[in-house]
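Weekly structure sync, notes
Attendees: PL, DS, HV (note-taker this week)

Item 1: Putative sugar ABC transport system, ATP-binding protein YtfR
DS walked through the input record. Source organism listed as Brevundimonas abyssalis TAR-001. Sequence as pasted into the shared doc:
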Amino acid sequence: MAHATDAPALLQARGVDKIFPGVRALDGVDFALRPGEIHALLGENGAGKSTLIKVITGVLRRDGGDLFLNGREIDPHAPAESERLGIAAVHQEAPARSTSAWLRTSSSGASRPASVLCGAER
Ligand SMILES: Nc1ncnc2c1ncn2[C@@H]1O[C@H](COP(=O)(O)OP(=O)(O)O)[C@@H](O)[C@H]1O
Ligand SMILES: [Mg+2]
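Item 1 (cont.): predicted structure, written out as tokens:
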């Protein structure tokens, strides 16, 4: 079996931008998630972790850059659309404690998660 980091990216973001009025939340984000990998997005409040998850899952529209799933360009406009592609986000809301968003992608509809991306904040 190939080492996880040699495998082609399951999910890839290339040069992703998201601009809100007065703030560039994402500035040319490059990211690759390969099968079986687990990534943690770490950053202070406002770093853009949630925005990246929201762009990947179609909650927010990106202003630039490209998204690929298994090498094919995707352009999710809504969470239901990304879910159909096998991308799922589980948002946790615990007031005064923590919030985190998990992204699971499963290849070809497999029920177990192929990869997990976790963004967490205090
Ligand atoms: N819906 C929104 N409207 C305007 N600004 C936003 C919105 N969502 C996030 N931002 C801004 O984008 C930046 C990144 O926010 P966010 O992705 O929530 O960061 P993190 O999850 O890392 O704390 C922050 O400056 C935040 O204020
Ligand atoms: Mg956040």
